[in-house]
């Protein structure tokens, strides 16, 4: 549900309040296996923010792919302490965003390895041998960032 909207880059601010309501409710299990809320302080403004984001769990790390033109991730260019609402639990974590194409390509590979259907969402072709098409992977990486969340 959330992944399609967040990755496609649609204007979904109205959708965030519904997503947050679900994630804070007893019904969070409907979407909390791949969507969480991150609570953070703006690096420039000092204001408190929160936003739902999609993730892929990889052990004690969560992987998020975002469009570069979004602004929320810019607060995590350096490793930043945050709180996240993950599967109904408020947890301390660190987030760090990476913009370089090679790291983003690796992140896309990891994200898609756990959910091959996500290749279509990212507009990445899968070759007949099951590998990601390099050209479409590079195009996807050029417009995106990877945000890694490390759980404490």
Describe the structure concisely for a colleague.
By secondary structure, this protein is an alpha+beta fold. It contains five helices and seven strands, in the order ααββββββαααβ.
What does this structure look like?
The chain has 152 residues and is α+β, with helices and mostly antiparallel strands. It has a single domain (2-151), classed as Electron Transport, Fmn-binding Protein, Chain A (Pnp Oxidase, Chain A), CATH 2.30.110. The protein is built from five helices and seven strands, in the order H-H-E-E-E-E-E-E-H-H-H-E. Strands 2-1-5-6-7-4-3 form a seven-stranded antiparallel β-sheet. The chain is globular, with a radius of gyration of 15 Å. The model is unreliable at 1-10 (pLDDT under 50).
SSE map:
Blueprint: H1 2-8, H2 13-24, E1 35-41, E2 48-54, E3 56-58, E4 61-67, E5 80-86, E6 89-98, H3 101-114, H4 118-121, H5 134-142, E7 144-151
Antiparallel strand pairs: 1-2, 1-5, 3-4, 4-7, 5-6, 6-7
């Amino acid at each position: 549900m959330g992944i399609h909207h967040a990755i496609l880059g649609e204007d979904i601010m109205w959708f965030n309040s519904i997503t947050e309501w679900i994630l804070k409710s007893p019904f969070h299990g409907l979407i909390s296996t791949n969507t969480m809320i991150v609570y953070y302080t703006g690096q420039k403004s000092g204001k408190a923010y929160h936003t739902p984001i999609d993730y892929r769990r990889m052990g004690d790390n969560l992987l998020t792919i975002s469009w570069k033109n979004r602004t929320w991730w810019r607060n995590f260019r350096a490793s930043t302490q945050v709180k996240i609402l993950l599967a109904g639990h408020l947890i301390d974590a660190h987030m760090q965003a990476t913009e370089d194409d090679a790291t983003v390509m690796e992140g896309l590979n990891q994200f898609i390895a756990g959910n091959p259907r996500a290749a279509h969402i990212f507009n990445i072709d899968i070759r007949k041998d099951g590998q990601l098409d390099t050209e479409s992977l590079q195009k996807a990486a050029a417009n995106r960032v990877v945000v890694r969340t490390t759980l404490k």
